[in-house]
User: Fold this.
Amino acid sequence: MGLSINQTVPDFTAQTTEGTIQFHDWIGDSWAVLFSHPKDFTPICTTELGYMARIKPEFDKRGVKIVGLSVDSLDNHGAWAKDIEETQGTALNYPLISDTDFAISKAYGMLEADVEGDALVRTPADNQTVRNVFVIGPDKKLKLLLVYPMTTGRNFDEVLRVIDSLQLTAKHKVATPAQWQQGDDVIIAGSVDNEAAKQIWPDGWQEPKPYIRIVPQPS
Assistant:
């Protein structure tokens, strides 16, 4: 079974390129992005890992930790990291988990529970479902799940946009509309009735329909 939004994500101990981590402890009071890969030395994943390294300062500004995962060995991770730096122009600056026993991939619903064998002889096609993005809150609950095919590189700028929305709506009683970008107008959350909304927005709101109440983004 896969994970559901607002479900507490499984904790785990893992070997990474930056040492052993206990996942929930590693997250601490931060937000986190875990993004997974079916195999080392795959072309699309190489570009993704390099791009994430390049934009890591954007995640840092938002208090978000990032960690990759691949169903391969630490030795291969080390060699792959050299290829990533050479071809993408940015060295890895975040941990990459080794999941050779498939335990994390299974716990996170990316591989079936009966998968077994030597990770090194499995092909990317065998592990093609291990291409997810998990955004996790400080409460260790899943806030966003994206699943990508092997042939489509992931849009991590969209992940940043969603994190901006998640962090805004966690602090304020609003929701963000389609195509929202930082600074755009937002919508008063449906859980806030008009009497409560008047206390928060005494200047009122735009109301094209009673269920669509538009206000400027809270600062």
User: Anything to note?
Assistant: The helical segments are 23-27, 43-54, 56-61, 74-88, 103-107, 156-171, 194-200. The mean pLDDT is 97. The longest strand covers residues 31-37. The two ends are 39 Å apart (CA to CA).
